[in-house]
Amino acid sequence: MTEYTTVSIPKDLAERVEETIEGTSFQSTSDLVRFLLRSIVIQHQKRGELTEAEFEEIADQLRDLGYLK
Signal sequence span per UniProt (predicted)? Predict the structure, then answer.
C-alpha cells in the first residue's frame, strides 16, 4: 500500500488550481501536484543532476505558480 504525506499550499493557489483543472483529466489539486513533481523527478533522473540553470528555471516556474515565494 502506498503511504502519503501532506503538502501545504496557500488556499488562493489551491482555488486557482481547481479552476485550472476543470475539464481536464486531473481529478484534484493533489493529482496535478503529483503529476508535476513526478515529471520533474523523471526529468532529473534521465539527465542525472540538474544544472544550476535548470534548477533556477524550475524554481521560477514554481514561483510563478505560487508554490514558492
Answer: none
C-alpha cell at 42: 523523471
Cα Rg, the chain, nearest whole Å: 13
Q: What pTM was computed for the model? A: 0.59
Query: Where do the domains of the chain lie?
Result: 11-65
58 CB-near residues (< 8 Å, 6+ apart): 40, 50
Read off the pLDDT of residues 39-60 as tens digits, 9 standing for 90 and up.
877 777 777 777 778 778 877 8
Burial 16-25 (b: 16+ CB within 10 A, else e): ebeeeeeeee
